[in-house]
Design a protein that fits this description.
The structure is a single chain. The protein has 243 residues and is an alpha/beta fold. It has a single domain, classed as Rossmann fold, CATH 3.40.50. The strands form two sheets. A seven-stranded parallel sheet has the order 1-10-9-6-2-3-5. Helix 1 crosses helix 2. The longest helix is centred in the first third of the chain and has 18 residues. The chain binds fructose -6-phosphate.
Amino acid sequence: MDIRVYRDYHEMSRAAAQIIADQIRSKPDSVLGLATGSTPEGMYAELVKMYREGKVDFSKATSFNLDEYVGMDPSDPRSYHRFMRVNLFDHVNFAPGKTHVPSGIGDNLDEQAMEYERMIAAAGGIDLQVLGIGMNGHIGFNEPGSPFDSRTRVVDLSEQTVSVNREKTEAESLPTQAVSMGMGTILQSRRIMLLANGAGKAEIVSRAFKGPITTDVPASVLQRHPDVIVILDAPAARLLDSK
Ligand code: F6R
């Protein structure tokens, strides 16, 4: 695996944004898989800056986000739809209808999840998938135990995930279910870039990338993918050499 360590969050965010910009430059109609959460916020800020400076053009690109909470209206401040608008979509030039976030509302979420898979396939599959990593090793909202061949579906969130996310976003309450791309969906991406920052992620980063491949640590399966870049700040990389 290609593990790259940067001095601080700002440096890693810039490096990650550069990788996305290079991807779009080499293939303007790239299909990007995008993540929410605190980790990629700096990367999105850099991408917005680069767009304003004329250094990246999203006009032919397509995006598919990893996940959304069940029952969450896209206008809800806690929703991942809203997160993406505020952090990226409202500030850059994706063409109308080219950005996708799974819907957490509707009469048949299972059918909608399957439709999401069909849309990804119809777009040609994901060229570059951006991931964060949860404190329990989840990628997307694939919690420990998620089968490596799982597809987009409704998932139950662990208590830890709900409480960590509630604390981070200062939300009073959060749903305990989400719609998430599956492990199999993520692994089908041609390239994957996982980001992690902060000392709090050091332990799980080392278990995921230096430990055994196991469904107990979902991100560990990335060791099997032929084209993964892991972008870390120094605190998150702290335990990598000791295992
Ligand atoms: C977000 C997602 C999650 C987060 C993970 C880390 O779309 O799918 O897997 O990447 O929970 O979250 P942060 O970045 O807030 O630590």
